[in-house]
Inverse folding.
């Protein structure tokens, strides 16, 4: 019979997890911002701090390594990453191609022009690092400890709400942006539940984020010039998302439902997790 969860130990694990992240971000943040500027700084800080936090927490409490948080790399990981990226990019294209086809939006050149050639490989790498850092933080060790203790939806929904709350400080955030971001947070938690790895939610997160700049729209309130064009809308802000970008739109709210259906039906390959699928006794 499995041991009954110790609430004091669980609370300590989560507390240490949060404190480790805050400490790592406090140390890494100023240096990363100084070296790379705001966008590079927050992205690098998030990934480095989340990696350190998960690696140390796994070693302290479980005697495991960072890949055991769901980052083991194999053919199944590649498959799930690809499925996630396809779903994220495809859903972003649904949100943006529909208004273009209906002439509710059109492309206009931006005065400052497009990004340099180097940005075409650097920006996707930066967005991949950002997606990996956020998923490692929000769906990593702390999330998985709660998942194995509290159960699926008692963990996925509250963590999704926290994920949204921490985006409240983004430029031009509003209630619809936060509601959709909570939906994405819950979606990414469900993706982890389906795959038991971080590659599926990382793929979803990255596929969505990397597609938006290609259409010249903001990503969570942040402008990333890439093509020399932006999308100008004749529809209102409820459809375009305004200066926050499509994540603050009703279109995204609808597409989130399609993404849940996609995850439910997609041929996702579930991996074995050393945190969630402990070996049988005597093995």
């Amino acid at each position: 019979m499995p041991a009954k969860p110790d609430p004091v130990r669980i609370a300590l694990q989560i507390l240490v997890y949060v404190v480790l992240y805050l400490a790592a971000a406090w140390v890494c943040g100023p240096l990363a911002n100084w070296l790379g500027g705001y966008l590079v700084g927050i992205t690098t800080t998030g990934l480095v701090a989340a990696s350190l936090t998960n690696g140390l927490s796994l070693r302290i409490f479980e005697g495991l390594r960072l890949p055991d948080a769901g980052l083991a790399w194999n053919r199944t990981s590649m498959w799930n990453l690809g499925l996630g990226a396809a779903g994220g990019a495809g859903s972003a294209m649904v949100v943006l191609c529909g208004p273009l086809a209906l002439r509710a939006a059109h492309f206009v050149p931006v005065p400052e022009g497009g990004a340099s050639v180097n940005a075409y490989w650097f920006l996707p790498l930066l967005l991949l690092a950002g997606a990996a850092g956020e998923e490692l933080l929000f769906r990593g060790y702390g999330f998985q400890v709660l998942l194995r203790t509290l159960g699926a939806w008692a963990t996925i929904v509250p963590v999704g709400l926290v994920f949204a709350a921490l985006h409240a400080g983004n430029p031009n955030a509003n209630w619809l942006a936060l509601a959709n971001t909570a939906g994405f947070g819950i979606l990414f938690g469900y993706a982890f539940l389906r795959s038991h790895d971080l590659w599926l939610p990382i793929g979803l997160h990255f596929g969505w984020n990397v597609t938006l700049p290609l259409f010249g729209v903001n990503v969570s309130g942040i402008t990333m010039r890439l093509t020399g064009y932006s999308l100008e809308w004749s529809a209102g802000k409820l459809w375009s998302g305004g200066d926050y970008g499509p994540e603050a739109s009703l279109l995204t709210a609808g597409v989130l439902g399609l993404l849940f259906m996609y995850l439910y039906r997609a041929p996702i390959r579930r991996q074995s997790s050393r945190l969630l699928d402990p070996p049988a006794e005597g093995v």
Q: What stands out?
A: Residues 73-265 form one domain.
